Amino acid sequence: MITLNINSKAYTLDVAPDMPLLWAIRDYVDLTGTKFGCGIAQCGACTVHVNGSPVRSCSFPVAAAVGKNITTIEGLEENTIGQAVQKAWIELQVPQCGYCQSGQIMSATALLKNKPKPTDADIDAAMMGNLCRCGTYQRIRSAIHRASEIMHA
Amino acid sequence: MSESTSTIHRRQFLKLSGFTGTGLMIGLSLKTNGESVIEKITHAYLKKQQDLHELTGSGYDLSPFVIIEPTGQITLMNPRPEIGQGVFQSVPSLIAEELEVPLDGVTIQQTGGQKKYGNGQFAGGSASVRTSYIQMRQIGAAAKEMLLMAAAQQWAVPVNECYADNAKIIHQPSGKTLGYGDVAAAAAKLEVPKNPTLKNPKDFKILGKRYPRPDVPLKSTGKAVFGIDVKVPGMVYASIERCPVFGGKLVKYDDSATKKIKGVIGIETCERDINGHHSVGVAVLAENYWAALQGRKALKVTWDYDGNEAFNTTNFTQSLRDAAKEEGAIDHQIGDFDKAFAEAPIKLEAFYETPVVSHSAIEPMNCVCNWYDGNKIEIWASTQVPGRIMDQFTKKYNIQEDNITIHVLFSGGGFGRRLYPDYVEEAIELSKKIGKPVKSLWTREDDTKMGPFRPMTFSAFKGALDNTGKPIAFQHKVIAPTLDGNKTHDKTKSNGTMTEGISEQKYEIPNMKNLFVFHYMPVPLAAWRAVTSTTLAFAHECFLDEMAVAAKQDPLAFRMSMLTKDTDTKTLMQKLKEVSKWDTPLPKGWGRGIAQWEFFAGLAGYVVEVSKKGNGIKIEKAYAVIDLGTVVNPDTVEAQVQGAAVMALSAAIKNGITFNNGQTVQNNFNNNPIVRINEMPPVEVHIIANGGPKIKGVGEPGLPPFAPALCNAIYAATGKRIRKLPFDINNIV
Asked: pTM for this structure?
């Protein structure tokens, strides 16, 4: 049995310790906002926060997450930066198919926590790990700048 | 089906639909000639319903798209799957505009392939809005007229004293109002108007506006439900090992180690059919997906490659070059190309090559299926083709439409991949075999390696100019396989899909002979966003640039000299010239290039500006113009064109798919990369929408002209002519 703290709630799961956190979150805790894209930390669709830092949950064993605070897209309701990001995302109509956007938003939220007024270069560095096949990058960039404005309003 | 599964279906459905009681339903049905007509639709009382089939299949040969309940709740049925292209807003908005309801409070429900919803239940060909623009508005307008009439009768006032606004009927002289829900039951008893009056576009409240898409908040909070997110009680997970060599056969498998993995439930063979390619794989079924993956890794499968392992990209590339020497079948000709070319004073020839690419939607292929009660199928899928799924599997399993329920979820990208329900068929077969609901989920490696792929096409050109630099002869010969997977092709015939657009350009050249040479490629092939235009436009518009250089003319002026007649293409070129400020000088080391492309889906063009950066180039800016005639949501159009530019850029500068030993070499995003945010150039989108009856596609036209505009810009900046994709943007010179 493994106990995980996800979005401030404890879940005790009967899963293999080497199971990636992604599958525990999706298939056992039924939080499906976190997505599977590549399984090798190349696309960022599975990005969650572990103790506040962005982590690719597809390549992060559940055993390593024990005792840590895990936040998924569903947990951003409690996060003021996350709220600003989501507000900006909706305002600028960022998503197309939307599949990668949970991961994009988790990465953007972590960026704005560390750098409340990011430059374009900061955005490139923080968001390079999140692929979007629909090509929403231009709006993602604008929305991160907009979220920064909302945070400072 | 177990009781618990049935309960969940009902609960999920009710949550999605909110159908409960009395109401009005109105819709269209398709005549046998495919022409749509508004049908008489009355549905005075609807019982509490369990599922959509019972709701809509109760003896009416109709296709109801508008459902208004006594509570005032409005449901609009959307036949077009949402794959990122914005139809979750654009198509229902056509109804909502005429019905005079805001989209905000409306429930949008995807149709599930039932015949009564017509033959437009697919997302493809950039067709969703352009082919239903009038039809969907008529549905909304007819419902509105019935509601107006019902209210007028209730008040005993002339109907022309009433108007509809914000889901209410208002009696103008008295100011009395009735909600749509109040009159829905009475309205349902009225005749459906045959020719409802459509609104004047100047009165539009939704259409033509930057209207927010209702799926965006769901997709910004993790609440949108994609196919991969579906979980039904009793469901097991499947991962399928398929032969790595296309054409290989399953000999035997040893599952002794697999069976020892905790959570593994069973092992079954599983067939796959994709565009002429049949194969048999081995599926591992487990209590959770991770166990299924571990079980699959432990399988020992013996394949017979059957000689197919000899296939590789290097040899195939050479064979395409050799095939280019064949004359080919005539696709289109005007004048006397051979004579004009033979006698011309200035001639040039060039050969262009493009790669195979993958769709790589970020949501890997997946499907949940439950085969129950002997002959009933329930499917949950991210798909572009609910209509095709219904058609294909009612036929394959010889069962009635009422026995197949298809739930269309949001798709995590389509790009043409989800036009092919091979992954749906796998889930159906597995559920049928084991008698439980199955979620079949592909890995990224499966998705990358197993195809189907966009084919590579090669292009051989001949062009001729007279002594003044005027183009007098042009030939584009396409050398390619066909998408259908056929090994043979009548060599006397062209193939319209594979020569897409090459004979449709509006350039006036007096002598032209375009050709097609068929060359079989033994891997599963498929349409890819903007199909063959994605390779042919690159070659075609770059070669035209070569002709402009030979003519010693400005590339835009050269093209304009061939556009003397008034056409949309000419208007587009003029707009590109204007928005890009084409005639203003660029900084030293910069260059700009232009390209346009017209094909079945529509018309768009780019001017791209690049600068030299080390040995490579940097894309400074792209100006896009898309010609629509009429625009439904400019915000969506802007997003679609920007996205198409990114997809085109990935196909131009990333390595694409190659084959060796009969197998796909690449397997994931590490070796089959796509463009990342730091590589995205700013794309400024301009829309030509002068109104009128014509309406063109949005999702695809922004893709084909990007790569040629980029490569033409690179020539302008560096003098280096790129004739082969992909190329290394960091190492041009």
From this structure: 0.93
